[in-house]
Design a protein that fits this description.
Radius of gyration: 30 Å
Organism: Pseudonocardia halophobica
GO molecular function: cobalamin binding; cobalt ion binding; nucleotide binding; ribonucleoside-diphosphate reductase activity, thioredoxin disulfide as acceptor
Largest sheet: 10 strands, mixed
Number of helices: 29
Cofactor: adenosylcob(III)alamin
Function: Catalyzes the reduction of ribonucleotides to deoxyribonucleotides. May function to provide a pool of deoxyribonucleotide precursors for DNA repair during oxygen limitation and/or for immediate growth after restoration of oxygen.
Number of domains: 3
Keywords: Cobalamin, Cobalt, Disulfide bond, DNA synthesis, Nucleotide-binding, Oxidoreductase
Number of strands: 26
Amino acid sequence: MTETVGAESAGSAASTSGAKGSAGGTGRARAAKAGKGVRRGLTVERLHTTPGVHPYDEVTWERRDVVMTNWRDGSINFEQRGVEFPDFWSMNATNIVTSKYFRGAVGSPQREASLRTLIDRVVGSYHRAGVEHGYFATDEDAEIFAQELTWMLLHQVFSFNSPVWFNVGTASPQQVSACFILAVDDTMESILNWYREEGLIFKGGSGAGLNLSRIRSSKELLSSGGTASGPVSFMRGADASAGTIKSGGATRRAAKMVVLDVDHPDIEEFVQTKAKEEAKIRVLRDAGFDMDLGGSDITSVQYQNANNSVRVTDEFMHSVEGGTDFGLRSRTTGEIIERTDARTLFRGIAQAAWECADPGLQYDDTINDWHTCPESGRISASNPCSEYMHLDNSSCNLASLNLLKFLGGDGRFDAPRFAKAVELIITAMDISICFADFPTEPIADTTRKFRQLGIGYANLGALLMATGHAYDSEGGRSLAASITSLMTGAAYKRSAELAGVVGPYEGYARNAESHQRVMRKHAAANDGYRTFPASTAIQKLATITWKEALASGEKNGWRNAQASVLAPTGTIGLMMDCDTTGIEPDLALVKFKKLVGGGSMQIVNQTVRRALDQLGYQAEQAEAIVEYVAEHGHVVDAPGLRPEHYEVFDCAMGERSIAPMGHVRMMAAVQPFLSGAISKTVNMPEAASVDDVEKIYLEGWRLGLKALAIYRDNCKVGQPLSAGKKAKSSPEAEKAEAEPQVVVEQRPVRKRLPKKRPSQTVSFTVAGAEGYLTAGSYPDDGLGEIFVKLGKQGSTLAGVMDAFSMSISVGLQYGIPLEFYVSKFSNLRFEPAGMTDDPDVRIATSVLDYLFRRLALDYLPYEKRAQLGIFSAAERASQVEQDYGSGPIDTDVDLDAVRSSVDTTPPSTEPAGVDPAPVEVGSSTELLELRLGKAADAPLCLTCGTKMRPAGSCYLCEGCGSTSGCS
């Protein structure tokens, strides 16, 4: 649909920044003249909608069937037929909304079956509450507000966070927040209440974070004279509780954040908690236990349900730089009770993060320097994803804009319309606090007094690529900074206007000076960064917006103590059909896509073609490049693509992945323009060292970040390891190797098996695919033939496996050693791949990988298997017992042996660059694994079995919309 833009949207930057009333509540607040039918409130003019025409009447609707299956076993997880959606919504977005957000029992008359019903349920609640609480000058303004909100939701311009869609307008409590921060004091009553409050929040489908630093350490005495157990011991109970309570009744576990101050006497124990458990996971995995994510034995491992972060101070970081001692302080008296070497402690933090990705860092002084309400308490913790940081016992409701919706056909970002959309959304978010329910009374009290909001965005990575900017470039960072500055400036401008209409937040009077100081810091940062052609106009509008916000705030105060964050945008990102989540770059250039009529395909990201057009390539050149990307998955050596443009197409994973420091620099560019922080994990290659982790954490502090976490490839157990350690040779073997070998050349002679020969049959499953392996031997020992039954009789798969078995059998009878076949076929990667039912081969990268590992275990001696890195469960357990503590297990992958099963024949009905998806691929991450020939560090979705993809510091399932985090 073509947008209908009001006259105000075409005006100058000055007029659109708020000098005159504008669409969606974007005009200035006004104190209306006293009179009949007139009240104090906001004036709202149209931005997207047309008078007399409902937004629903401007789009084409169609009926669809939503049938969602478990990728691993084919069972149906969810089914609802005949749902109604606009024709431009993808099937994936349809699936997510239908299964996640439609309310009512499936199959009942009360079940929602149309996007219209869902949007009306939510927008109607906001509309009624806005009128009731005096937000609008007239009923007509309120009606325009509702229609503009409807249009933006309908056209995927933005989305509220998931709790809004779950709860608003239903009989359930009207919880609108996804982010919570709790508090715990140094009393048993407070600790037990912490368990209770976390349980209530997890039960509602959200996550929570808290700081345990008030709890006295294990090196201090109790009032009774005994020794305290320390905060780490209480973490065990909370972790068990979180693992038991499935978040929101779903299959994923609860999300939580645990923070400890760096000067706590138990800090070293806290740092090592998850690293020690990761070592335990390796021991149990190699002993044959099911330690996969969601496995039956993983529950025996502790601390796996929380993200851990250390709250570091400037004093500590300066001590690290200077190599001086640092004092650990008593929790009861504040006195230094122990001194430690700062560099040693920092090294321990980096070492633990290198081993298991925890702990992350939160930079305490930076966080509190940007705190708008210091008179009401310090900021000591964050939500589980680290983007919301404010007072204890508080919450934040989130909403995110789809940045690509503001990119015009000319490649320019529509800054005026973006600013107006922000103001309308902030209005709606503030209204929600008026009717919202909260899980605990302390959280309700703090939220109503401070009214924290968290507006943010998604699709930044796609926007940068579409405009021809590399993610790790000065121009890309400048564009991201200008957009973020405009967003937060427009949000606070509207917050100040709302304060003039319905009053500032209750805690403002006490914190007025500090709040104004932080606003000036934001405005100064806006004036201080370097602009480029694509960001100059946006920065100019941001400057005007901040100026007006400061003036209005000085007069009226502010309605909200916080306005903006950058959240993971997991499920809602899929709802908006975003290519990228939050601040993240693109995952890969080729993605997996579900089709409306059923089935799936792999498709080159649409932003690739937009980027090529923006960079000036002709249509024929662009088409050739897109076809090359479809075949190879990257742009290196693409025909006609200039090497200086390669960086525009760099992604989070793949042939050209963005350097870790590139992620840090992007975070640093936008951080000064956010009230809160950024949910993002800096991905590091497996070869990264502990020194590299230290450098990342130091640079994060120096660049002014509020929080930072890293993830090193293969640092966690949960994906297949390609090779084990080679066993030590025995003296006899060494002697045999030293003796000269006589080589006799001869022609191969086939040694046939006798009519009657010993054999064994093994049944197996690989990722749910069942099969049988029958191996026949010579009477004097030695494998001579194999038969593999896989697939239905008469099927193509069964025929291919029969032919394969015959060729291997003939080769064995001609004297080709079994170890040759094992070396060639083990580690071969294609679907089905995953968990098996064999305790000796727990994970297989393909059926052939499993078969030849099994044959090696049954027919090869230990010395030969040791050279191939193939051991039984008992042998691995023995190795671990001998080598425990010697270091991480090698995980080198034989990439030369990798073979892709991707069908690259494009269907005639699709544009260039679109290929049919491999039958066994269920997500973009799995498609990327096929391209790279190695496993991605992402868990399987516990709902539908597909491989999840990173989304901020969480993981997101493209198949069903489940997340591993709190949003």
